[in-house]
Amino acid sequence: MSAITYDFSGKTALITGASGGIAREVARIFHGAGANLVLLDLAEEPLAQLVSELGGEDRIVAMAGDASSRDDIEALLELAAKRFGGLDYVLPVAGIYPEATVRDTSDELWRTVMQINLDGVFYLLRSALGHLRPGGAVVNFASVAGHRGSHSHGHYAASKAAVIALTRSLAMEVGPDIRVNAVSPGTIETPMTRDLVRDRGGNLLANTPMARYGHPSEVAAVAAFLCSSAASYMTGEVVHVNGGLFLAG
Ligand SMILES: NC(=O)c1ccc[n+]([C@@H]2O[C@H](COP(=O)([O-])OP(=O)(O)OC[C@H]3O[C@@H](n4cnc5c(N)ncnc54)[C@H](O)[C@@H]3O)[C@@H](O)[C@H]2O)c1
After folding, report:
1. 4 lies in a domain?
2. Cβ within 8 Å of residue 119, ≥6 positions away
3. Residue of the nearest CA to atom 2 in ligand 1?
4. pLDDT value at 2 more than 70
5. pLDDT value of position 248
């Protein structure tokens, strides 16, 4: 893939779920474009590994914590303020994708999915508004599931549909200072989709005009575009990155 590079030097990007398949590519592209990074994920070790891969802590602060916890989010924002003086880009990437039909979804599973995929995004965005500098941007991570539903992932689809509605609503409230958009990935090869690809990959590929799964960097590239000045008149938009799966499947 040919890479378009942006100049994010002097800017600060906050990324949750940072050790995950898509978010680490987001971290790479923003860091490569000069941004400071504020990273959050559950476990310390993979975060430390990512920081070292990116060249060390010079322009990065990383914290192990829970993206669905108000306290952890407040601590992360405090860390960002102390180290970099504010934020320019917020990318709540953390998410989970457990499998259960609606019939088999317990109250607990429903709450867990909503807590991480939706409540956490809301807590972060609400609090981050006090830290985002004018000209800043939010990129949320929705899913093709949020547009058309997803067999055995009704909780997930519902959480992502809500993220789309939250994206559009917030865009109405915080313009013109802040732009708020979302990406809606299709089937991207990451740890999240390992089982899906194994069990239903053939069917998904048959319905994907691009005839392959997406690479995490192909989602990260769109997130970077949405934060860049190239997208300066885009807000409240949800950009599909799915190789045509949404059209065909
Ligand atoms: N991979 C896909 O095909 C696909 C498709 C549509 C949408 N998405 C969305 O893109 C985002 C990234 O997905 P991915 O494929 O990179 O998944 P992934 O499983 O590779 O990464 C998710 C990351 O989120 C972290 N995380 C989970 N719960 C957390 C919590 N409570 N606090 C902090 N971190 C937490 C995990 O530790 C992991 O590092 C998710 O929001 C996902 O729903 C992915």
Report:
1. no
2. 68
3. 188
4. no
5. 75
